[in-house]
Write a structure and sequence with these properties.
Layout (H helix, E strand, L loop, with lengths): L2 H7 L1 H4 L8 E3 L22 E4 L18 H10 L5 E3 L14 H10 L14 H10 L11 E5 L2 H11 L2 E5 L9 H15 L12
Parallel strand pairs: 1-5, 2-3, 2-4, 4-5
């Protein structure tokens, strides 16, 4: 059970806009690189990227890049090499799901990207992510609004970005179709909220 997601979901009762993404793409292959170009007329200065793994750039429970996404993945890595890229997964790198860090080590080895080791699952690990980018040698990140979070879940990846004061890119369809009724409902939620006038909150420096 993801206690962090459950607890933070209560914030959505007060602020439903926290689960709205700043940009939406169908699959990882549609990711705009550089990411600063992906937010319409908004003046984004994206210096670092947080990547979700499962059903974002990899098949669920696999620690390799989904082959059709290889070129896009390499392009992203060229524009955002370490220390300006970080994988944050709720499977690989968490103390509950990957106690000995085996999956994180495997994932980092196959992608050449560091994987965050975290005890609190998304969306509650924002402070650790920000600390990573602010202190990593050679990092050009000075504030949360210079970070973009890319992932396929509204209640973890997008909520994480908005709680951090960062930008979010929602991968709506992912690698494989998820027939879970909750996921189907989640995919329809942004449209319904926007029909009622809700908008994604501005990143921290633009508020």
């Amino acid at each position: 059970m993801n206690v962090s997601a459950t607890l933070n979901a209560f914030r959505l009762l007060r602020s439903p806009s926290l689960c709205l993404p700043h940009a939406t793409i169908s699959t990882f292959n549609d990711l705009p690189v550089p990411l600063s170009n992906g937010f319409g007329n908004a003046e984004a200065d994206i210096r670092a990227v947080v990547l979700d793994k499962d059903n974002c750039f990899a098949m669920p429970k696999e620690n390799v890049v989904y082959k059709p996404y290889t070129d896009k993945f390499n392009t992203l890595l060229t524009h955002y090499p370490p220390p300006h890229i970080l994988i944050v997964s709720n499977s690989a790198g968490t103390s509950s799901s990957d106690r000995y860090g085996t999956a994180a080590s495997s994932l980092s080895s196959t992608t050449n990207i560091p994987v965050l080791q975290h005890s609190t699952k998304k969306p509650g690990c924002g402070p650790q992510i920000l600390q990573h980018f602010l202190t990593a040698p050679g990092s050009r990140v000075t504030s949360a609004d210079q970070i973009a979070v890319v992932g396929d879940r509204l209640f973890t990846d997008v909520l994480l970005a908005n709680l951090m004061g960062s930008w979010s890119i929602w991968v709506k369809d992912g690698v494989v179709e998820n027939r879970n009724p909750f996921i189907s409902w989640e995919r329809k939620l942004p449209g319904r909220l926007m029909d009622y006038g809700f908008k994604a909150p501005l990143p921290c420096s633009m508020r």
